[in-house]
Specification:
The chain has 447 residues and is mainly alpha-helical. It folds into two domains: 8-183 and 255-443, Growth Hormone, Chain: A (Up-down Bundle); 200-254. Helices cover 81% and strands 0% of the residues. The radius of gyration is 20 Å and the shape is globular. It comes from Hoeflea poritis.
Length: 447
Amino acid sequence: MFGENRPWWLLGALSGVLGLTVLDETVVGVALPTIRSDLAMGQLASHWVVNAYLLTFTCFVAFGGRLGDALGHGRVFQAGAALFALASLAAGLAPTGGYLIAARALQGIGAAVIFPVSMAMVTVSFPPEKRGTAFGLQTTVGGIFMSSGPLIGGLFSQELSWRWIFLINLPIVLVIACVVLATWQSTDENNSKAGERFDTAGFATLLVGLVALVVFLMQGPEWGWTNPSVLMLLVIGLLLMIAFVFIELRRPDPLIELDLLAIRTFTGGTLSFFVFQFNKIVIFVFVAMFLQEKLGRTPVASGLAVMIAILPTLLTSLITGRLTDRLGARPPLMLGFAVNGAAVLLIGLLSTLENYWLVVLPLILWGASLPFASIPARRALMGAVPKPKHGQASGINLTIQMFGGTIGMALCGSILAATGSYQLVFMITGCLVLATVFVIWSMVERD
């Protein structure tokens, strides 16, 4: 049935995975005020609806990459997709804020399993000279989900129910799982590494350490920064992360092969993804909140503003993929972060005027630059490591990337709770994005 087009059908299905994970970021940000009101949640508690997903994604994504390398990418993908679908159902039926946060945490685990193996599957299925185009097409399909997410979130939360923003995942996951099952062909399913010992100590220290640090950042404003419990979380988190580094460097089969970070291009690309995710979460969540809480816009109007901003990615993703194949990763990557950071600073400066369209216009510039800040970085970091390490490299990259979103949500949520200033949130984010241009210039090598 699929013939020679089998890799492209597989690419289309795996692009849906990227779309779902992005959809669950964009759709929730717009619906957050409605969810908070419906489930009687406080402001900081409602932020956990976003950050529970990001936190478990961060903690488990390296595990997902490792699991795919050990047991075979195809079967691990199917298991992760099933978990994601069940967690989406639980989130859609959640009776309280606590249940919703728990379901979102399970969703994050499912996404953490399927996302790194899907990236490895695309890398294996296409030769190096076509990977830029493949990743560009994948980002384009993901952009369709991403661009529709804010409007879907606004429409469901305003006209129907916010619960449908999670329930809509079920039919999409079913279709994706069936296509992947029919098109994935690889010998890695027979090359199991199940005999390797799982790095339990590394996983435990990473999980508890990251959770402690994020709870410290998230709950500091509410509990008090000098509260002994808050300070203890900081100490525990830092000590466990130090212990994690020592454990990983000494193990013959670590959860995360930190030696890969010695490859400068891989590290530079990974750091740029950290900032990319930090920036993306801030825009999708805090701009949507700003439009509703400060400008009095409806969820639909807020979702429409963010959707308009994302629409240019449907074109710029294809342009970026081809440009990256032609010029290499560094030039388009530096351009993307420069334009993106300038757009965020402009949003911060114009937000004081509290005018809807003066926020939307720089948002469009921000959205158009997103593929330039992601596609070249992915091509650079995946191309810098040996083929047998693609699953591990994808896991490391996604761990650090999603940690960027987790830190962005926690830190900016704390800043907003302490100061009430959306402008400060946007200005800090814009400066961070611009500073990343120098990191790219110094670390990402020319092809």
